[in-house]
Amino acid sequence: MFAFLPQIILLAAHLLAATAHGQACGCSSVVVPVDVNTLIAKDPNDPLGGLESNATALRRLNAKYDIFGVFCAPREKTAQSTDVIQLLTEEFQNQSYTAYACDRGLSTLAIDLVGVGKSTRPANASDVQYVTNGAAMSQLARHLKSASILPGVKPFNQVIGVGHSAGSVALIAGAVADAEHSPFDGLVLTSQLSFQPGQLGAPPVVSARDDTPIRWGSLEPNYVTLDIRAPFYPADTTLFSPRMLVYDNFTKDVAPISVIPGISISSLTANYTGPVAKLAGVLDQAICVGTGRCDDLAKLTALERVLWPKAKSFQVVLTEGGHCMDLDFLADKAFSVFVKLVNQFAGLH
């Protein structure tokens, strides 16, 4: 229940990802402008983000946002690396998934969501809802298929969305809104299971400007942050470096208050027609440990499958790690599943 506020994606973290794999891969920072023209909830506390609201509860959002990201591709070009790209909504940092994927021939674009990191942070936090980011990610995916992200990089034929936690919910919001018109050729949704409205307890969020005035003193109070990070990790402290907690707390970011009730978007039916996979760590203290949800994989899969009735395929995979799958020593086990799924969805293996 604590895990749905975005992790920070600072330039330093991107640079670590860019250098982790030496000369095998090339990485570049990019900024991609997107136009978001969509209906969002007038009340940012709407648990379904306006996706099941009547017209009187909605307002039009028409805005341009700059999406910051880091594009990584193998230096040795192959059909695999030039035809398919993974759009990572919240980069897997520390033990970098961008590096892991690049070393296995896959290109990635790891982005900051609207309101997070180095992407546009609107002055009005209520503009930043899951529907906002869902629309932005869909526009970005269409851009990747129709235009060059960098000189010498041709448009990609397929875009696979790989989301983490809040990033997964943003992809779900886009899938609900776009249905069969989604530009994504597959969705890998990690550290995220469906929750009914009101099912989650209130996570320990505080106003970001009160938490760290030197960084966020100018933000409106509806931009919040977490003051407890431990639930992102396995309870067994031997499974991660104790330094990670210090680093994680130091580099945490903000999110709009709407991300908390908006988690309920995950309970909506998505008429998306591509393949879908959900990954959960059995040591995830937010969604698995103590909940019983991850004890029976067949039952969990059946329950989650109901919400994706038109998906080409659907599966739930349980991995060994915690909520932030890249921050513990079990990261490679999850990463290998990601690569397998992306290759499967793209028809590469």
Give the structure's gist in a few sentences.
This is AB hydrolase-1 domain-containing protein. The chain has 349 residues and is of the alpha/beta class.
Keywords:
alpha/beta; 349 residues; three-stranded antiparallel beta sheet; globular; 10 helices; disordered N terminus; Rossmann fold
Description:
With 349 residues, the chain is α/β, with parallel strands linked by helices. The protein has a single domain (11-345), classed as Alpha/Beta hydrolase fold, catalytic domain (Rossmann fold, 3-Layer(aba) Sandwich). The protein has ten helices and eleven strands. It has helices at residues 11-19, 79-83, 97-102, 130-146, 166-178, 208-211, 213-216, 242-250, 297-305, 331-345, and strands spanning 25-41, 58-74, 84-89, 107-111, 158-164, 186-190, 205-207, 223-226, 255-256, 276-281, 314-319. It has an eight-stranded mixed β-sheet with strand order 1-2-4-3-5-6-10-11, with helices on both faces. A three-stranded antiparallel β-sheet has the order 7-8-9. α5 (166-178) links the parallel β5 (158-164) and β6. α4 (130-146) crosses α5. The longest helix has 17 residues, at 130-146. The two termini are 36 Å apart. The model is unreliable at 1-22 (pLDDT under 50).
